[in-house]
Amino acid sequence: MTIDDAFFFAVYLSQVLLLSFYFPSRVLRRARALIEAYPPSDYPKLYPAILTNMVAIGEKTGNLSQTLTYLGEMYEGEVDDLTKGLSSSIEPVLMVVMGLLVGIIAVSVITPIYEITQHLSPK
């Protein structure tokens, strides 16, 4: 079963579960049109080769749930690494912005006090 067939099968199951005669036929027509217009096998950026190959192997060996669990953990690790890298790169910028804000607040508080003390005359 290819990924195209799996997608069509998922839409078919949705039709069966909805138990309607009008709406599911429209869904199936749109699913067929979607598969013909954008076949998943033609978009390796959306569906990486490792994903499609691992799903195919999992289906053949009967260990699809374990394969999907492994793929989920692998992609979760990749997302964690990306977010850690992103937060590490944003942190210095945030420190500079916070320093500037604290400096502006300090200057805006001290400047009026300094001006008041300059205008006071000793008796």
Write the layout of secondary structure elements.
Blueprint (H helix, E strand, L loop, with lengths): L2 H16 L4 H15 L11 H13 L2 H56 L4
Q: What is the strand tally?
A: 0
Put simply, the count of helices is 4
Specify the overall morphology. Answer: elongated
Largest beta-sheet details: none
Low-confidence stretches: none
Number of domains: 1
Percent helix: over 70%
| Strand content range | under 5%
Global Rg = 30 Å
Instruction: Name the structural class.
Output: mainly alpha
Listing every helix as H and every strand as E from the N terminus to the C terminus, the arrangement reads: HHHH
Distance between the termini: 97 Å
Tell me, rounded to a whole number, the average pLDDT. Answer: 80
Describe the structure in your own words.
- The protein has one domain (3-90).
- Helix 1 (3-18) packs antiparallel against helix 2 and helix 3 packs antiparallel against helix 4 (64-119).
- The mean pLDDT is 80.
- It has helices at 3-18, 23-37, 49-61, 64-119.
- It has 123 residues and is an all-alpha fold.
- The chain has 4 helices and no strands.
- 0% of the residues are buried.
